[in-house]
Amino acid sequence: MLLTTARLGLIGSNIKSDYAITRSECELSDFLQVDKIFAQYRPDSVIHVGGNLQPSYSVNGTKHSSIFLNNALGDINVVKACEKYGVKKLLLVSSASAYPEKTGYPAREKSLYLGSVAEAHYGYGVSKRLTVDISKIFQMSSNLRVNVLILGNVYGPGEIIGLNGTIVGQLISKIVSAKISGEDINLKGNGYDCRNFTYVKDLGDIFQRILDADLDLEPMNVANTEINSIGEVAEILKLLLNFKGNIAFEKYDKESNSVKTLDVTKFCKNFPQAQFTSLKSGLLDMVKSLKLA
């Protein structure tokens, strides 16, 4: 029996399971509620993707503590329940934001603790790095097998379209608004910033492969092997959404670009047959699902 968290979230809504928890029925930061769910369903395997996301406004510092507490308590409570009810395999989902701000890129798993996470998303980043520590602490005292998966930039159907969405969700929102207003679009940065844009619908198969495998229990980066710039994302969306205006970036020098990619050598070695959707195909599927094309 496979149980997942965050049924209505970006990842949770796009993976199959025998039962998926929603926040309305179970607040993960409350162990009594989590315990009740596990006692009722007695899962063999769990994929934990629930938690507070990194909002774009977290830079002002008003949400750091609540994001950290909700994520940390949710992870602890899920792992604790897995231990109590004899779950055989647990996947904990972390984020590239767990890596130090000044790490070398592509970021490798061994560099996770070689510096501080970015202050702009400090509460979120620390909570996602703590996910690794929580898994190790519980595994040291039980037979629970936990794999922590550090994901790249996930996008797709089910995400927030607006300022608190992912890079893709924010760009779609800006383009749709500009089409309505007839204005051009000015974006921060220079457009050369690179990421591993990972289509959310690819994760279901990948998660199942990892559940079925006998891996070491060290954290592992999981992301599309294709690297794309934010400028490329903007140009593809401009075409798919039939936007006739101009999209300009405020900086024009390539020297200021931010390359925040993940080294997926370990993942590719263990799962050479895993397939990823190309950025163009993923964005087309997403735009169609939103009925914007």
- Overall morphology: globular
What is the percent of helical residues? 25-40%
Widest beta sheet: strand line-up: 2-1-3-4-5-10
Within the CATH hierarchy, at the fold level, what is the topology of the largest domain? Rossmann fold
Short description:
With 293 residues, the protein is an alpha/beta fold. The chain folds into two domains: 2-154 and 199-222, NAD(P)-binding Rossmann-like Domain (Rossmann fold, 3-Layer(aba) Sandwich), CATH 3.40.50; 157-195 and 225-261 and 277-289, UDP-galactose 4-epimerase, domain 1 (Alpha-Beta Complex), CATH 3.90.25.10.
Fold and architecture overview:
It is a single chain. Helix 2 (64-84) links the parallel strand 3 (45-48) and strand 4 (89-95). The protein is of the alpha/beta class and 293 residues long. It has two domains: 2-154 and 199-222, Rossmann fold, CATH 3.40.50.720; 157-195 and 225-261 and 277-289, UDP-galactose 4-epimerase, domain 1 (Alpha-Beta Complex). The protein contains eight helices and twelve strands.
What order do the helices and strands come in, and which of them pair?
Blueprint: E1 2-4, E2 19-20, H1 31-41, E3 45-48, H2 64-84, E4 89-95, H3 122-139, E5 145-151, E6 153-155, H4 167-181, E7 185-187, E8 194-195, E9 197-199, H5 203-212, E10 220-222, E11 228-229, H6 230-240, E12 247-249, H7 265-270, H8 279-289
Parallel strand pairs: 1-2, 1-3, 3-4, 4-5, 5-10, 6-9, 7-12
Antiparallel strand pairs: 8-11
Features:
single chain, 293 residues, alpha/beta, Rossmann fold, UDP-galactose 4-epimerase, domain 1, six-stranded parallel beta sheet, two-stranded parallel sheet, globular
